[in-house]
Backbone:
């Protein structure tokens, strides 16, 4: 197997974890199987850069001297707010030449400025997805997933999602066992699926202003297996079903049904990851009723069955 070069672009005010997260993943794979990856970093002129947290990073070389890599990683950070035109121009001329073009967090803004995301589906940190969509209407911006693959281009959400994406790339190159070994060393799950939402249901939804609705939100979280129909929830809040549905959406930004669906999915995922309970029991206590109903929900939201999800994402027992 030929050694693959991974080149990470550096610039002032880069987010340090956007750089070190993927680098640690690829370095872990290289330590496990020497000769698989050659990891390089490069800035415009080869000079050290200062990250947004104050760390100084010394690159291996200048971008002008870098050869075409197998995987080109463009991190994000405050430095993407007003990018150096020279960096954008370098990406425009060299980004499409790599076998895989990857952005972490707001690195997608740099790729967009270079025209490398036009006509593609992409994501970025939730706080900047609106800006990306507004400034670049030719891009199909999806603010929800933690990472998206569209052809040879992969974009990821905020900071730690770069680790998830890097693990996915390791799995693609070297297989699941290699990626799992790296994940264990980093003490992270292998791996959050790309279409997993950036937020949990509780974080994604706004907290309702009125206390009865807030209490219903909390009750849903604590009782995913209960009757969570609009009629039942409305009675608990003391509203009519129609008034409850309208008020819940107005104050939380989502419908009661969507909120319940996300809470149940997250509850089932946690049980699959953290317990040895059977699929039938998990489907019951998570509110799905039957394993088939839970399977349909998993396939629709995560693209995988509950059994496959458990196989992939439940940590193996320590020997």
Residues:
């Amino acid at each position: 197997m030929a050694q693959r070069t991974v080149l990470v672009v550096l610039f002032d005010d880069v987010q340090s974890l956007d750089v070190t997260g993927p680098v640690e993943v690829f370095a872990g794979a290289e330590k496990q199987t020497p000769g698989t990856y050659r990891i390089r970093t490069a800035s415009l002129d080869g000079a050290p850069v200062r990250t947004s947290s104050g760390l100084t990073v010394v690159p291996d070389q200048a971008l002008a001297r870098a050869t075409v890599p197998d995987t080109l990683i463009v991190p994000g950070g405050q430095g993407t707010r007003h990018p150096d035109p020279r960096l954008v121009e370098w990406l425009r001329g060299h980004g499409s030449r790599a076998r895989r073009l990857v952005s972490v967090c707001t690195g997608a803004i740099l790729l967009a400025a270079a025209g490398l995301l036009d006509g593609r589906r992409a994501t970025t940190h939730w706080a900047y997805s609106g800006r990306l969509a507004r400034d670049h209407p030719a891009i199909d911006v999806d603010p929800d997933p933690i990472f998206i693959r569209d052809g040879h281009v992969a974009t990821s959400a905020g900071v730690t999602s770069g680790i998830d994406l890097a693990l996915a790339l390791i799995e693609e190159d070297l297989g699941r066992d290699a990626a799992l070994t790296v994940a264990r060393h980093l003490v992270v799950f292998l791996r959050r699926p790309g279409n997993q939402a950036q937020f949990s249901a509780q974080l994604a939804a706004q907290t309702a202003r009125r206390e009865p609705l807030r209490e219903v939100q909390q009750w849903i979280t604590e009782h995913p297996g209960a009757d969570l129909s609009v009629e039942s929830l409305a009675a608990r809040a003391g509203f009519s079903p129609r008034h409850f549905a309208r008020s819940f959406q107005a104050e939380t930004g989502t419908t009661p049904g969507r909120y319940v669906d996300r809470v149940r999915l997250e509850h089932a995922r946690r049980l699959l990851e953290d317990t040895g309970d059977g699929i039938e029991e998990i489907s019951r206590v998570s509110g799905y009723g039957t394993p088939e109903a839970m399977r349909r929900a998993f396939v629709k939201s995560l693209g995988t069955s509950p059994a496959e999800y458990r196989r992939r994402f439940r940590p193996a027992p320590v020997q």
In short: The chain has 14 helices and eleven strands. Confidence is low (pLDDT under 50) at residues 315-319. The CA atoms of residues 294 and 300 lie 10 Å apart. The two ends are 31 Å apart (CA to CA).
